[in-house]
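INFO  loader      accepted 1 record
INFO  loader      residues=111
INFO  predictor   begin
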Amino acid sequence: MDEDFRRGPGGTIENAGTQTYVCPFCGHCQVGTAVLDSDALKQIRCHESRTELGTADRCPKCSFPRGWMRVTCPHCGHRQPVSAPHWGDGCDTFHLECVQCGFVYDSLCIC
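INFO  predictor   done
INFO  writer      dumping tokens
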């Protein structure tokens, strides 16, 4: 689950008071506050289905929000969704709390 942020007056970043998530069991998606800034728009294709996104806040094929993808837990091998918003730039930074085994893993920036 990700806390949503938006640009406020004067370009400041503020908490939008909403959350975006993808269920790790069924894949149901909930987009709280769509943030379509220039960084988010760098993502051309959905990380999950490889479908073209255009300016949409979520994938028209699988409904994953921009920046979300499935990763494999390095401890138990369970695949589940995580927010990896910088993957469009080739940066694999994400935080995983595996729902299968409880393992916590932080993938650090490779940029």
